[in-house]
Design goal:
The chain is an alpha/beta fold. It is built from 16 helices and twelve strands. It folds into two domains: 344 residues, TIM Barrel (Alpha-Beta Barrel), CATH 3.20.20.150; 56 residues, no CATH class. The strands form three sheets. It has an eight-stranded parallel barrel with strand order 3-4-5-6-8-10-11-12, surrounded by four helices. It is globular, with a radius of gyration of 24 Å. The protein binds D-xylose (XLS) and nickel (II) ion. The site of nickel (II) ion has 4 residues, from loops.
Amino acid sequence: MKRSSFFARAKPVAYRYYQPDRRVLGRRMADHLRFAVCYWHTFGGTGADPFGSDTFQRPWHAAGGDAMRQAEHKAEVAFELFELLRAPFFTFHDRDLAPEGATLRESNLNLRRMGDSIEKRMRRTGVKPLWGMANLTSHPRYMSGAATNPDPEVFAYAAAQAKNALEFTHDLGGANYALWGGREGYETLLNTDLKRELDQLGRFLSLVVEHKHKIGFRGAILIEPKPAEPSKHQYDRDVATIYALLERNGLEREVGINIEQNHALLAGHSFEHEIALAQALGVFGSIDINRGDDNLGWDTVQFANNLPQVALAMYHIVRGGGFTTGGLNFDAKVRRQSIDPEDLVVAHAASMDLCARALLVAEKMIDDAELASHVEARYAGWNGKFGRDVLTGRKTLAQLAAHVDKNNLEPQPRSGRQERLEALVNRYT
Ligand code: XLS
Ligand code: NI
C-alpha cells in the first residue's frame, strides 16, 4: 500500500486477538465486531477543548487552504487509516466529508463531488459506510434546535439536509442511516414549549422513515441517545426515553437505537443496561464504542480499553443475536496531547484488539453457560402453568388473592448470589 506522508512513520498493525476470519460462536470474528472508524473525531478532531485551541497540526486543516482540496486530502488519509487497520466500515456526517457551501444547493454539490472520490476509494479498498448522518448540530442556524426549532423554516432546512444525507448514504450503500439530537432539547424551560418540540421531533423522524421507504433504502434508521451536552436537556435521553418517543409516533418497528458507552454513563446507566434494555424492547441497532470517565460528568469519548466492561457488553450483544446492520463504531477521540499521527493508529488498533479479546471472553461465558443458567433457574417458577397463566392474563387480582389464601402461601426468600456471580465473571476475564 502506498503511504501518504501523513502516516509514513506508522508501523503496520499487528493484532494479538483480532483475527477477522477466526470462527467464534458460528460467525467470523469480523462479522461479530463490524468495526467502523468515525470520520469526525478521527479526521476532523483538532485537539481543541473549551480552554485551548488546536494542538493537532493536520495538513487538511491549514488556514486559508482550498476546502475541497483539503476534503480530498482528508479522504486520502482516511482510507489509508482504514486500510492500515483493516477496518471494514466507516461512519460520517455530511459535513465531515465535504465543506458547507454558501447555499444548501452548493453544500449538496460539494458532498456529491466528494462522494465520487469516496466511492472510488470504497471500490478499491472494499471499505463501506456503517452509517451516514446529517450534521444538524454545528451550524449556528441550528443553535435552537433542528427538528425542534421554534422556527418551521429551520425544520425545513434540516429536513432538506437530512433528505440529501439519507439519499447520499443510500447511494454509497450504507448499512444504516443515523440521527443524533445534540440540539434537539433545550437550555431553559422558560423559553420552551416542550410538548410542541416533542411533536416536531416525532414528525421529523417519521419524515425520515417515510423517505427511506420511498427511495428503497434497505438499511436501518438509527437514533442515538444522549441525556445532555451540548444542550442542557436532550429529548433522546436514553433507550427508555427514545422508546417512548418511537412508540408515541408508531415508529418502534421502524427505528433502532445506536447505543454509546459514554452516553449510557452520562444518563446514569451501565453500558450493558442500555444494550439489554434495547434488546428487550426489540430496538437494538448499533454501538458507538468508546469509554467515559467515572469521575467526570462529561463526554470524554476515550477509546474503549476496559476489558471487563466491554466483555459484558459483548456478552449481551452476542447473546441477544449479535449485530444485523449495526456494528462497533469508534466514536472516540485521542487525547489533546496525543498529537502524532501514529497515536491515531495505535488508539484504534488497541481498542479493536481489546474488543476482539472481549468477544473471546463473551464466547467463554456463553459456552460455559453458567451465568445464563443462574438467571434461568432464578425465574424457573414462571415457566410452570401457574406462572404462564398469570402472565397471559388468565388470572385476575381476586383469583391471585384466592390462590394465596387457599394454599396458605408464604413464599421463601432465595439468595440472588450476586457476589458469587461477580466472582464467576472475573474468572472469564
Ligand atoms: C456526540 C455523538 C456524536 C454522534 C454523531 O456526542 O456521540 O458523535 O455519534 O453525531
Ligand atoms: Ni456517538
